[in-house]
Amino acid sequence: MALKIYNTLTRSKEIFEPLTPGKVKMYVCGPTVYNYIHIGNARPFIFFDVVRRYLTAIGYEVSYVMNFTDVDDKLIRKSLETGMSVPELSDKFIEAFYEDVGGLGIREATVHPRVTENMQEIIQFIQGLTDSGYAYEKEGDVYFRTEKYPKYGELSHKNLEELQYGIRVEVDERKEDPRDFVLWKKAKPGEIKWSSPWGEGRPGWHIECSTMAKKYLGETLDIHGGGQDLQFPHHECERAQSEALNGQTFVKYWMHNGYININNEKMSKSLNNGIDVRDMLQMYRFQVIRFFMLSAHYRSPLNFSHEIMEHTGHSLERIDNCLADLRHRRKTAMDAVLRDHDRAFMEKIDQAMERFHEKMQEDFNTPDAITAVFDMVSEANLYLKSESIPHQALQHAMDAFKQIDDIFGILQGEEAELLDEEVEKLIAERIEARKNKNWARADEIRDQLTAKGIQLEDTQQGIRWRRKV
């Protein structure tokens, strides 16, 4: 098998061949830290976390950079609204970011650089573009000459004549060409600012990522990722200024995930239908949120609703219950000679794992990979009906589930099965009630536990319990 990635630039799947064998340099655009991250932010953060985990699982050493935009127009506006300084605001929401992504089971990047920590490098980058004629200064602002870079528009597949202003680029008659974009902004009175050869000001949006990518990963990256909304203008501009300065290909594989809709409507400020991650984590286990995000191919749109999340939770519960049953049987399993029946089961698990990897190698096709996981669940549930099961076969299946969880991060660990003291007492009391044939009290305790989200099963190996999703 060979990993294939859909490259936004070429609009085709390409066999993944990193610049350096065994190593991957990956950059993903991080948040502008003026507010809490929302469900739309969560999709790329979770998906590229899975990409990184998968690349690591198949043997690559991954250098993963995700930046913080800690100074821009939005932060300045929020600063004026709240009375907090821009650094105070960014510190607050960076701390919140770590809490929220940690709550989603997302691993920290190798480096999380801030714009404000790389200001001299940004100024040097812009100076290099002005020295080479790719940029020009007008009254304290610096702009990039798009016409001088003939490949501008290739990433977004737009003709230069068709290109419109980027989201954060204001119309300015001082531009030589209306398609030129800003690299350095002259500071307005009272704004946060830094000294530069063009006067006091701050960087434009696009230049920061080019600078930090170069500083931490080099002039050419293996993978650059982000949401579909960043394809133009942000990534288009990054590519232009990076290749203009460095004279080399900026990114080998461009990856972009699709949008999230809320109840079949596009998430937007005008509809006020966004959901913050921290609010989602109050409603759903993080594993359910991750499972939901992986339930559709990353390049496809994904629709969120509470009904869909409830269905997602029940689907994940099937996997959790299977894994919990395997753990439960393992407690009483003995080492024994494997029978043909046991070997056949282990082979079916291996075949399901092969299908899992085949689908992941096809441009990270997570929904089809999940189908392979449910194949494992079906085989395991059938096998668990056997009266005598050797420890080796159970461990083989559990090891396979662990491999999947190392990549997807969706399964409950054994520690999640620990009961709190109150529930333990109730279970012990129910056992005693059954011994005394006090069936009414035993049933009453079962109802109490059910209300607490604990389901009990009486098995030959003893009481089996699990949590509801």
Automatic annotation (TrEMBL):
It holds the Pfam family CysS_C. Binds 1 zinc ion per subunit. Its cofactor is Zn(2+). Keywords: Aminoacyl-tRNA synthetase, ATP-binding, Cytoplasm, Ligase, Metal-binding, Nucleotide-binding, Protein biosynthesis, Zinc. The keyword Methyltransferase does not apply. A motif ('HIGH' region) lies at residues 31-41. It is an enzyme of class 6 (ligase). Zn(2+) binds at residues 29, 209, 234, 238. It catalyses: tRNA(Cys) + L-cysteine + ATP = L-cysteinyl-tRNA(Cys) + AMP + diphosphate. ATP binds at residue 269. A motif ('KMSKS' region) lies at residues 266-270. Its EC number is 6.1.1.16. Belongs to the class-I aminoacyl-tRNA synthetase family. Monomer. This is Cysteine--tRNA ligase. The lineage of its organism: Bacteria, Bacillati, Bacillota, Bacilli, Bacillales.
